[in-house]
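Notebook B, p. 112. Complex prediction, attempt 2.
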Amino acid sequence: MDEYVTLNYKGETYRLPVIIGTENECGIDILALRRDTGLITFDPGFANTGACKSSITYMDGEKGILRYRGIPVEELAEHSTFKETSYLLINGRLPTAEELRHFSIMLNDHSLVHEDMKTFFQNFPRASHPMGILSAMVNALRSFYPELQTTEEEINFTVTRLLAKVRTMAAMSYKISRGHTVVYPRPDLAYCENFLNMMFNTPVKPYEFVREVVRALEVFWILHADHEQNCSTTAVRVVGSGRVNLYAAISAGMSALWGPLHGGANQAVVEMLSDIYRSGGDYRKAVERAKDKDDPFRLMGFGHRVYKTYDPRAKIMKKMCDDLLSALKLKDPLLDIAKELEEVAVNDAYFIDHNLYPNVDFYSGIVLRAIGIPTNMFTVMFAIGRLPGWIAQWKESMDDPQWRISRPRQIYTGPSETHYVPMAKRKGI
Ligand code: CMC
């Protein structure tokens, strides 16, 4: 039975349809609201706005649920690979063995980047942040690979090319930033191994694969692969809605991800923990500062717009952090500080009242440190992981029968009509 919400305004009654999703989450359809009533909705930060219908990712922030195409992220983290999860997100279902094999071949075939791009990389100032470089390079792909992206085949080709090349470009930017020789992708290596090899292999010390490190990277990327309508995904959809090419839309997503309130939080967490460590380890002071409304400081890696309980990704990440460090026989003082800080924060009335729990970024930086990833590359690692999600969301938005260019409204609060005053008559300037 169709459901409606009734709105009474200026003596008139309006019926607004209710849309119900497969997990029974409900939304009011306001498509006709302005036409019928003259009203718009006001929702800064889109905190309570459904911008699309989507069949990719389901989150329940109250229960701490995250599923990709219906499959719990816990199951994917345990059994899947990043490549398989990417296929799942982009194509809507798990691949058969033959489809996965074909996908791997395509990723290998497209993993090289145009040699001219190397020169491009080398001309960035040395202190450039890798996220700035990556987003610029992804946008530049359009100039190096200007082929059309119109038919399904062309789009699939571009998608594979992007997935394959971003990994190479990320490792390349790291090597160039260190002044080292670039390591090319190897067709005999799987997705994660290939990346680790391109990052860490050197002519004097061949990179040795450690099973636990490879698995940690797989899981790290699986946990980041999609998160429905977050800031960067919204950027991809909004920029994509103007019908730009895929590279430009993804580059916009990367720029959005860079911010410390979003994907940049993984770098910010490790910087925060390092500051606490350097200044004597007083994590309680950080908790007190985070509660002080006169102090702009926030506990990085805590809080989430949707999760009002423990982020399910953070649970997996925390366990993986422990397992990885013990497998590698590593001791990281930042992990001890993180755990103590978490213990104090989750038992503190302010954090309880505000539903603030560790999010995915709280422990992920420690995992990345153990893998050997430098701190300024952390958000790039997030970006590689989020890429299949952005692509899936972009593809879905391109095929959406309700697609329209993104164009919100506003409540204007500036001056009413006023008139131009010639310079000679202006006073007080
Ligand atoms: N430390 C201290 N107080 C906080 C924090 C925090 N990390 N996060 C939120 N609050 C407080 C905030 O001060 C506000 O308090 P009050 O209502 O008393 O004024 C209340 O909680 C609600 O905060 P908000 O900023 O309105 O919440 P939001 O949904 O707009 O922001 C957030 C979500 C993730 C930006 C925010 O929690 C935050 O800044 N966290 C730290 C940065 C971080 O870890 N970001 C990574 C998010 S997970 C990875 C990803 O998907 O991007």
